[in-house]
Structures are given as structure tokens and as C-alpha cells.
Amino acid sequence: MLNDEAIIHPRLQHIGLTTANLDRLAEWYRVVLCTRLVYLSGNPIGAPESGFKVRAGWFSNDAANHRIAVVEIPGLEFDKDRSKHTRLQHIAFEYRTLDDLLGTYARLKALGIVPVLAVNEGAQTAFYYDDPDRNNVELGVSNFGDYRDNWSSIRAHAELARFRPQAARCRC
């Protein structure tokens, strides 16, 4: 029977981004999140050969057919006033352990990819990175093994504490 009354809790399946340089963005997400190209279309909108050139790629780092969809549109430029506009603020990826997160931090730092912000938010520890198009990407880990414990911490510590990854212990 069709459920037309209860609110269903779907999971986020993927995010979609636009870019002027699909290859550059694909490489960054490959290096940072270990994504692989699942599908590439040289003409996703079915434009005539002489028409508007658009490419699209689907990327995943798990069994899903894609977690990140990227559409390349020639001529796109960075919005210098984006802080004054409504927009998607960031996308977040969760690690299972603090060691996994800190190991990723060390690996990326060695490649010259450093966070623009690192915080211990009580309930979680997170690093925020800008991808080549300045989309903000959060890499984080729960500071508790159980999400129920996160809620108690969030209520008790509303302020954010700056986190220094260099001071944390890590098996790198």
C-alpha cells in the first residue's frame, strides 16, 4: 500500500557540481577521496555536434553508481561574490576512525593539499578543504562511537574549538 502520510527518511545518494574543468576536478576527488570514474559522457544533453559542448562524469568511491556528478560547462567562472549569495556551503564525508582521518590529513598534506579550517566541534573532528573550484569539502569523524552520544556533546558544547592536527597523535 502506498504510504502517503509518513515522512520517509531517504539517504543522500549523490551531489552534483558544475565546473569549467572536469579533468582537474576529477583528479582532485580521486586523490582526496579515492573516487573512480564510473561514467563519462561527451554530450549528456544531446546537443548537435556544432552546438554547446558539455561533458559529464559520474564518480564513486564505494559500490554506488555515483556519489559525485560533475558537469563541465565551458566558460564557467568563479563567483568572486559567492560569500554574498545563497549556495551550498559544503559537502561532508565521514571516516570511521580518527586514525583514518589523521592518516588522510598527513597523506594530503604531503601532497600539498591542506585544510582551510580544522576544528574539534565536540561531537566530531573535521578538516575543511577547498577543491580546485573552491567547493568546500569536509572530511570528518565522530568523536564518539555512537551518534546518540553526539547529541549530548552538541548540546553541552555549542562553541567550536580550533583543532591543531599537528598536535594529535596519528599512525602515519
TrEMBL record:
Transmembrane segments: none annotated. InterPro entries: Glyas_Bleomycin-R_OHBP_Dase (IPR029068), Glyas_Fos-R_dOase_dom (IPR004360), VOC_core (IPR037523). Pfam families: Glyoxalase (PF00903). Residues 11-142 form the VOC domain. PROSITE patterns: VOC. It comes from the Bacteria. This is VOC domain-containing protein. The lineage of its organism: Bacteria, Pseudomonadati, Pseudomonadota, Alphaproteobacteria, Hyphomicrobiales.
